[in-house]
Amino acid sequence: MKSSVMATQGERWFSRVNALVLILVALLCLFPFYYVFIVSFASPAEVRQSVLLLFPKQWTADAYRYLFSTSAFPRATGVSLFLAIVGTACSLVITSMLSYGLSRKRLKGRRVLLLMILLTTLFNPGIIPGYLVVRDLGMINSVWSLIIPVLTSGWYVLLMKGFFDSIPAALEEAALIDGCNDFGVWYRIVLPLSLSSLAAFGLFYAVAYWNTFFTAVLYINEPEKWPLQILLQNMLIDSSTALGGVTDSALQDVPSQSKKMAAIIVSTVPILLVYPFLQKHFAKGAMVGSVKE
């Protein structure tokens, strides 16, 4: 009885210490986000005087007003929104159509196509061949060069195919008997049953498109077509980066540190806001095709 009581007390102490450690680790992880948020809303005087600002005495949104009064920042935000919305929609359509076709055993050449897709997950042609292909297709300095080369992923195709394999063939046969063609089966039967997987992969694609950086460095030479991440990188490296279009003299006094922090917040918040809407589908969709019954 005594050993049982001692074991229970030991477990309680372990739980308390474990909870304390986890809380401290969580605070350490959250502090950089808190600091960026605080500095973006702090007054110019406090930012210049404080080495480590923990809580501003005076709150102001001048840094955000400065960013959106420029010509470059709203334009870059629009490019990133276009990539995230249009790119994600195109990628989901192509990925789901390809995955559905490969999941049908009656498809001719199915094994060869699966092998070719599998090879793309193992071997990457490299930067130079990819650049030459984009150049020869005439897509240099085009926003589509940031979408078409990464329109789908072999890994995502294989995962979504595993989900489509679990859909009973009887549903497809019934739809074909009722007069649906293959496109109708995909659109009317398969997609409504695949909302969880579409939500999960849509989130993956949206995050990737929103964070587009390296391909933009390779293919986009005109600053007018830069996505948000390229502009943010230039702002972080060179505080004197000219964004243009600011006519309000009151905003000229905003410290470069506040501008940088506000830009980081604006580039981070939109994707964070997407997660709550897709959370109920994400856990189920993330495991799609990974377990066979």
From TrEMBL:
Segments crossing the lipid bilayer: 20-42, 79-100, 112-133, 139-159, 198-220, 261-278
Gene Ontology CC terms: plasma membrane
Subcellular location field: Cell membrane
Protein keywords: Cell membrane, Membrane, Transmembrane, Transmembrane helix, Transport
Record domain ABC transmembrane type-1: where: 77-278
Family: Belongs to the binding-protein-dependent transport system permease family.
PROSITE patterns named among the record's database cross-references: ABC_TM1
Any Pfam family hit: BPD_transp_1
Top-level taxon of origin: Bacteria
Chief location: membrane
Membrane topology of this protein: Multi-pass membrane protein
Protein name per its UniProtKB record: Carbohydrate ABC transporter permease
InterPro entries: MetI-like, MetI-like_sf
SUPFAM superfamilies noted in UniProt: MetI-like
A Gene Ontology BP annotation from the UniProt entry: transmembrane transport
